[in-house]
From TrEMBL:
The lineage of its organism: Bacteria, Pseudomonadati, Pseudomonadota, Betaproteobacteria, Burkholderiales. It comes from the Bacteria. Its EC number is 2.1.1.222, 2.1.1.64. Keywords: Methyltransferase, Transferase. This is Bifunctional 2-polyprenyl-6-hydroxyphenol methylase/3-demethylubiquinol 3-O-methyltransferase UbiG. It comes from Imbroritus primus.
């Protein structure tokens, strides 16, 4: 399946998540980590950007877990993705839940060209490590947010600890994720992401790590950015 919207997409990555699309909203499925993580990231985003009555874009929204939860907080949410199957699942769940989200199959770069500075808040969570050119996504997100608006990213650090926990641990030992979900070579050190953020005209507001306890199955905010981390930015 080809995706003419942009060259900054790996068809194998899109197809990988498309094959699992029907399981997005099963909290016991391969997407359990996203369901477990979502309250934490939602609370962090809302605490900084105050989502109520804001116009929000969720980049790489998948089946809509974060998109719907932001809409529940009173935001007007648009979710974009290049997986048609995931978006169909998101649309169906939106109808079932009664939570309105506007979903569209379009690349973030194409939307930035069409609707620059159209959003108060842009989120791009757990996506950068799945695209060939993360800096292109960062730049497009910066173009899409209004001056003074917030952009949020989350990704995985490229450290031995991240390989041990996010790849070997999560995919092979605990089997929380399907094997091959992550490519360690695509993990992004915070300094690399920070450089792309500043180059795009954004200023960093906060960087927080996320830690996971496999015994309690609970995620917590942390200063430890060795594995999962989130960055809050503001457009200058």
């Amino acid at each position: 399946m080809t995706h003419p919207h942009t060259a900054n997409a790996d068809p194998r990555e899109i197809d990988k998540f498309s094959e699992l699309a029907h399981r997005w909203w099963d909290p016991a499925s391969e997407f359990k980590p996203l369901h477990d993580l979502n309250p934490l990231r939602l609370g962090w985003i809302d605490g900084i950007a105050h989502l109520s009555d804001k116009t929000v874009l969720d980049v790489g929204c998948g089946g809509g877990i974060l998109s719907e939860s932001m809409a529940r907080r009173g935001a007007r949410v648009k979710g974009i993705d290049l997986s048609r199957k995931a978006l169909q699942v998101a649309d169906l769940h939106s109808l079932e839940s009664g939570i309105t989200v506007d979903y569209e199959e379009i690349a973030v770069e194409a939307l930035a060209a069409r609707e620059p500075a159209a959003f108060d808040v842009v989120t791009c969570m757990e996506m950068l490590e799945h695209v060939p050119e993360p800096a292109s996504v960062v730049n497009a997100c910066a173009q899409l947010v209004r001056p003074g608006g917030y952009v949020f990213f989350s990704t995985l650090n490229r450290t031995p600890k991240a390989y041990l926990l996010a790849v070997l641990g999560a995919e092979y030992i605990l089997r929380m994720l399907p094997r091959g979900t992550h490519d360690y070579e695509k993990f992004i050190p915070p300094a690399q992401l920070a450089h792309a953020i500043r180059h795009a005209g954004l200023e960093i507001v906060e960087i927080r790590g996320m830690t996971y306890n496999p015994l309690t199955q609970i995620y917590k905010l942390s200063r430890d950015t060795d594995v999962n981390y989130m960055v809050a930015c503001r457009r200058i």
